[in-house]
Amino acid sequence: MKLTMRPYQTEDDYWRIRAFLREVMLLNGIREKSWPVARLDYWRWHVALNCEGWESIAEVVFLWETADGRLAAVLNPEGAGEAHLQVHPGLRTPELEEEMLATAEAHLAAQRDGRRVLVVWTDDQHEQRLDLLRRRGYNNGKWVESQWRRDLDAPISDAPIPPGYTVRSLGEVDELPARSWASWRGFHLDEPDEDYQGWEWYLNIQRCPLYRRDLDIVAVAPGGEIASFCTLWYDDVTRSAMVEPVATVPEHRRLGLARATIGEGLRRAQRLGAVRAFVGGYEPGPNALYASIMSTEHDRSEQWVKEW
Fold first, then answer.
1. CATH value of 4-144+302-307 in 3.30.70.120, 2.30.30.140, 3.40.50.300, 3.40.630.30
2. By the 8 A CB rule, do 268 and 237 touch?
3. Pick from 12, 22, 34: nearest CA to 92
4. Of 209, 135, 218, which Cα lies nearest the Cα of 175?
């Protein structure tokens, strides 16, 4: 089947991509062989806007369409210099994936120390793509995303927390500065506090189409500060929920707060109709936590790197 590639053009393309990812997710048995639609939203409204400073994604997203206008594949980055290939399982061919990698190398590679660098993320069971990456000069990189999953077909037990702590939904806009500060403390351990740039970025998080404040879960310490948090994103088309992000402020760690917030979020998603939940981890500590909460079943997305 002949496919035509074109760059992202209008806002309509974004909503077509969302529908495409939902279709592909269902065809793949609700497995993360492609992005959940929640990850696309989180990338656009948080990673692209808040982290990368991209006001538009038009220059970094490419679409492949059939002769009758159906989407067959989408190419997009996450961070700068990265590429993710979202491909319809019924339309995947070696020729398509070769063209997608060539497009990524031409348009998504980053410049580092006078060389071009591209990082491609791919499922570690996708032998056809892995062979193609090797033939194009890619080498296995350092990082692996462990994509943990849990079927929500059984009760989810409460996790005990110390006296004085409470787990609840994030409050109104006046609590956003506290939520933002907890995020800074949870994710930026090695950075000086004077680098903190304020809380307004969280307004973009709340603009994501799937954002629900009742799934934005916080653990509050006896003194009233936010000690831990996690956010769930429920997609009622695939009936799946993505957990992203999760963190605990350093002085409140090892108290079971992350386990408690995730568990509360999973119960709420389950009540909404979710049948499966996902969370991704890159390091031993988070992966051990997620494996104990979700299940030992997981997929692995590997990093493959090319420099030239």
1. 3.40.630.30
2. no
3. 34
4. 218
Residue limits of CATH 3.40.630.30 in the chain = 4-144+302-307, 166-274
Q: Which amino acid, residue 80?
A: A
DSSP structure string for 193-237: GGG---STTHHHHTTSTT--GGGEEEEE-TTS-EEEEEEEEEETT
> How many Å apart are CA 150 and CA 131, to the nearest integer?
30
**CA dist 69 → 59, 63, 98, 192, 244 (Å):** 21, 11, 21, 50, 33
Total-model pTM: 0.96
Compute mean pLDDT per 10 residues along the chain, 308 residues long, and list them. 95 98 98 98 97 95 97 98 98 97 98 96 97 98 97 96 98 98 96 95 98 98 98 98 98 98 98 98 97 96 98
Residues contacting residue 183 through CB under 8 Å, at least 6 positions apart: 202, 229, 245, 247
Three-state DSSP class for residue 158? coil
307, β-bridge pairs? 117
Domain 166-274 classification at class level: alpha beta
Assess contact for 133 and 114: CB atoms under 8 A.
no
Q: What is the DSSP string of 116-138?
A: EEEEEEEETT-HHHHHHHHHTT-
With residue 73 as reference, give the H or E element that holds it: strand 71-76
CA–CA gap between residue 16 and residue 144 (Å, rounded) = 29
